[in-house]
Amino acid sequence: MRLSFLTLPALALLAASTAAHAAPDPLAPAGRWTLPERTAARTPPMGWSSWNAFRTEVDEAKVLGAAQTLVDSGLARLGYRYVNVDDGWWLKRRTDDGRLLVRTAIFPSAAVPGGDSSFRPFTDRLHAMGLKAGLYSDIGRNACSQAYDLQSPNLPEGTTAEREVGLYGHVDQDIALFFRDWGFDYLKVDACGINVYAAGAPIVVQNDYRAFPPLIDQASINRTDVPQVRSLYANVAAAIRRYAPDGDAILSLCTWGSADVRRWGKEVGHLWRTSQDITPSWTRMLHNFDSASTRALYAKPGAWNDPDMLFIGHGDFDARHLTEARSHFALWAIINAPLFIGYDLRGAPKSLMDIWSNADIVRVNQDPGGHQGVIAYASDDVQTIVKTLSNGHKAVVLFNRGLAPATMELTAVQMKLAADAPITLRDLWTGKTLPVFTGETRFDLAPRETRIFEVSGTRRLRDGMYLSEVPGDVNVAVDGIIEPEPDPVVHRMMGQWSGTRDTGERPVYAGWGGAQADATPYDQTLQIAGRSFDTGLGVLAGSRLEVRNTRAATRVEALVGVDDSTRNTRDAVEFLIYGDGRLLARSGTRRFGTAATSLSADVRGVKVIELVTRADRRTSDLPIITTWGEAALRGGAPR
Ligand code: GLA
Asked: CB–CB of 27/618 below 8 Å?
């Protein structure tokens, strides 16, 4: 094509119109649930992992010992089925054909005469026990242990190339090996290889690694190549679909909450770490919990926020700190966190076994609805979290985060139950049913104590569900965030590795401004023109939510408007409801200060409802905060 006759402005126009043509409108209704329909991890994955128990000093006897205990103790029957080998299993990558070799000195069953190796006998053994097998890799060329566990006896050996045990450049080959040849069911893919191996870094120079220009800067989302990180992981997911075509394989993304994974993890993997590594310290547990607890709308069957593995049995959560250990467990359970035991199960005391094997609490975590618990009350001292169960009940956690005793009121309103009807609580630690009450009740909590209950009562919304009660049925397809910002609502703990030598922990996990249940995207009370709402969805303008009509509701309704906490008070928005791609209702122009308006639509027979908030003629990039107050599905199947 000859362009010489075009003037510069004409060229710019041409470019703009081609771009406009090429990019589909992200707010156009999809007419369907766009997340992959997954058969694996319909409930949060459960099992055991070697990392918190043994770091790289893992071996076959330790893993099989854990596996045997899972079976013998009944934990496997409760759902703890995945037995995951974390970092430390590899010897080297054979350079003539690129094949990975297992360190057979610690996994003797993997030895194959002639110097080859295969994990097949090991996974056969686990499968014969009724268990599933998980393995670990890295998205770059080198793994985390090769940077952080330099004293380990189990680091990959050999030349620079032989020590490149990560997936980079070998995705197809390694995934075929792990899933098709070795029979694994689960893969955790870490990200140190694209994070800490920069040219000139002491670790690279001293250990003669090949440098990898970092794609992730954990301290700066702006310096992180989010699309590239996502696409590397998406390639792994695609390879897993090729080599484990039955759809039963699980992919765990381990970018430690960086690279905006808290937004896109659901589209690529079955679980994604929302924070850096947990340690057996109370304040670290708070940090990890907070990184996932505000993300209820991002988790759903087949896709889970992962605040990291359980550290019960160690440090602040050991058998001398059962209050803390129980809190850790109840908290992970109510936010649908994956439950991976990280303890040497061959010698676990009964007091710890009793925690992992609390069938009622496991049932809360494994409820088939997949609705992550939503924060109903929050302060730095105490929190109340409420989760919708599929049997029509609620699960509730009252959590004392601090070192002072606390008295907490639990109200019917917080549980979205009628305030004038009897409410029954069953204590899931003792199994005891408490005296019936109406309206509210109160509890005294010891320092760091968590109470967890199953609750039955009369629903406040008798013929429907508030959308914030069923986050597992909502997909935040487009969240309206223009530039990702770090989330400040995460407990800042004292440096575990640096002490107080540096300036302290800064907010680092992108996702601030994402859609929230029962709060605005920036964690304020939902409020339109002075009217506040104790339930609803808070979302930025420029967003599209997909809602699965799993209960065959007949109406969707909400009170919509620009939220009083909006940062952009000038620009207008419009709220639209679609049913299976058809426009059903629109609000007309709404602005900051205009009263909430009622928006509703008949959704009989509709499978996927879409809630869209548009701001097509913005004059600035400042976020417009909007509220779908009291958003609810009415009618439909009884609950
Ligand atoms: C990273 C991960 C951990 C663990 C180690 C292994 O730190 O976040 O969960 O897998 O690497 O080296």
From this structure: no
pLDDT above 70 as % of the chain: 96
State the DSSP H helix or E strand holding residue 364, giving kind and residue range, or none if neither: helix 359-365
Is the model's pLDDT at 20 over the cut of 60?
no
Query: From atom 1 of ligand 1, which residue's Cα is the shortest distance away?
Result: 144
Q: Which residue minimizes the CA distance to atom 5 of ligand 1?
A: 144
Residue 306 in 3-state DSSP?
A: strand
pLDDT tens per residue across span 477-521? 999 999 999 999 999 998 777 889 988 999 999 999 999 999 999
Q: Which atom of ligand 1 is nearest to the CA of 144?
A: 12
Structure tokens that stand for 581 in this block:
């791609």
Could you tell me if the CB of 190 is within 6 A of ligand 1?
Answer: yes
CA of 112 to the centre of ligand 1 (A): 28
| Of 109, 64, 65, 107, nearest in space to 89 by CA | 107
430-485: pLDDT as tens digits: 999 999 999 999 999 999 999 999 999 999 999 999 999 999 999 999 999 999 99
For residue 220, pLDDT over 60 is answered with: yes
Q: Which of 163, 146, 143 minimizes the C-alpha distance to 95?
A: 163
Pairing of strands 597-602, 555-562: antiparallel
Q: Are 450 and 389 in contact (CB under 8 A)?
A: no
> Distance between CA atoms of 393 and 388, rounded to whole angstroms?
7
pLDDT per residue as tens digits for the range 34-46: 999 899 999 999 9
**How many angstroms separate the first and last alpha carbons of the chain?**
63
All domains of the chain in start order, with CATH: 375-464 (2.60.40.1180), 467-634 (2.60.120.1060)
pLDDT at 31: 98
Tokens representing residue 597 in the block? 């308006």
144 lines ligand 1 (CB under 6 A): yes
| pLDDT confidence bin for 638, thresholds 50/70/90 | low
Q: Please list the residues that pair with 583 across neighbouring strands.
A: 578
Q: Please work out whether the CB of residue 138 comes within 6 Å of at least one atom of ligand 1.
A: no
| pLDDT one-digit tens code per residue, 263-274 | 999 999 999 999
Among 48, 50, 51, say which to mutate for ligand 1: greatest number of ligand atoms within 8 Å of CB. 51
Measured by CA distance, the residue closest to atom 11 of ligand 1 is: 144
Could you tell me if the CB of 256 is within 6 A of ligand 1?
yes
- Which residue from 85, 145, 258, 277 has its CB within 8 A of the most atoms of ligand 1, so it is best to mutate? 277
Q: List residues with catalytic annotation.
A: 190, 277
CA 188 to CA 302: how far, in whole Å?
15
- Distance, in Å, from the CA atom of 529 to the CA atom of 477, rounded to the nearest integer, reads 27
Residue among 52, 254, 273, 311 whose CB has most ligand 1 atoms within 8 A, to mutate: 254
Q: CA dihedral in degrees (404, 409, 413, 414; nearest 10)? A: 20
Confidence band of 228 (pLDDT split at 50, 70, 90): very high
Between the alpha carbon of residue 486 and those of residues 169, 219, 291, 337, 504, the distances in Å are 31, 9, 11, 21, 15
